[in-house]
Amino acid sequence: MNRKYIITIVAIAGVLLLGGIVYLYISLQQQKSDNEELQQLAALDKKEMENEYAQFAVQYDELKRSIRNDSLLVRLTEEENKTKSLLEELKRTKSNDAREISRLKKELATVRAVLRNYIIQVDSLNRLNESLKNENEKVRQRYNEATSQISSLTTEKQNLSNQVAIASQLDATGVSLIPQNKKGKTEKKTKNITRFQANFTITKNITAKTGERKVYVRITQPNNSVVGQKGTIPYENSTIGYSAVKIVEYTGEEMPVTVYVNVSEYLTPGTFHVYIFTEGTMIGSGSLTMQK
Known about the structure:
Blueprint: H1 3-65, H2 70-92, H3 98-168, E1 172-180, E2 195-202, E3 211-220, E4 231-235, E5 238-242, E6 244-250, E7 255-262, E8 270-278, E9 281-290
Antiparallel strand pairs: 1-2, 2-7, 3-6, 3-8, 4-5, 8-9
Helix pairs in contact: 1-2, 1-3, 2-3
């Protein structure tokens, strides 16, 4: 084998060896590049999973704020805590830990399905609550209307009762006051008066209750002192003195009444007033003026 042939063989082998080295280098660089891309994709995939877990945790918190159901609130809190726990596990896991990442990805799918189910439940519950709220509002309106009607009826009843009470009150007409001396004659001088004769008529009233009635007569001097005061009676949130009382049997028909009031005190000239009361109501009045 000549020298020229050997040199040719060596040159060809060198070229082939260099080509192999270059190919191997290029292959290694490509593999390195592919690995870096895979690592970047794994890191992005992990980051996306973390974002989803965090978003699910926020959604659980929002669901809890929108309900008032205690048992459902407890379950939502449990699922929220579980989601946060899985998120912490994912953060601690390296992106190249394929087995753990695969497990947490499966857990993520489960969390997503459970959350979707709770969203449906809460939405249904909120729609039911809104329906009940609207129904309660209608019931409240009907209650208010009924209350208003009852109040109106009560007012009408009270007004009617007041009208009946007023209509059933007795009325005394023709009230007169006659001064008399010790002989029972009409007296013109105040110093000789020993008693007063009060005359009046209780009018007919078919709405008034019948039976015994105490009729009080109050006579006042010009100085407003009560003549022959026997006691007091209630009148308009107070008490006043009366001069005499008489029990009459009222039948609902017109009834003349005479009441005598003895005089023992000194009387002064002027205008004397006489008032008739029964059951705390003044039913009539009159006056008499004496000059001396």
